[in-house]
# Entry
Amino acid sequence: MAVQAWKFYNKGKKYISGTINLGSATFDLHLYQSASNFATNTLSTATGLTSQVASAGNYTLAGKPLTSVTWSDGTSAGQKKFTSAALTFTATGAAIANVKGAVIIARTGASAKDPANKLLCYASLSSGQFTISQNNTMTLTMNASGIFTLV
# Structure
């Protein structure tokens, strides 16, 4: 099962040119089921997303905040790279079921669950949905080249 590259939502690039400050905003990663519309690149806010993975096994509808977020120079002149530390989801007390994709959402609203939060990018984690069994973990390690690079 190969994780696809992160893809921008259509308005994602627009948001980072004024609405979202990549250097200071808080970003959360949310998990979605195969029945979700998370890969519909015309979505713009969290309110449009469907079929988030249910709260269970230490996963909540607030998602998980990205840590060690950096916005730095890329490998060539004029490039900027956005990245974060790896995220680990541990299924504590119950399984985390029906995982298919991940969405990075910028907290532009009052909380991590605010429907007005802006969608930045998404990735399919597998070709089909899967379950993180109780007491097991899933670690999402961001590419060394960054979640995305802008030129």
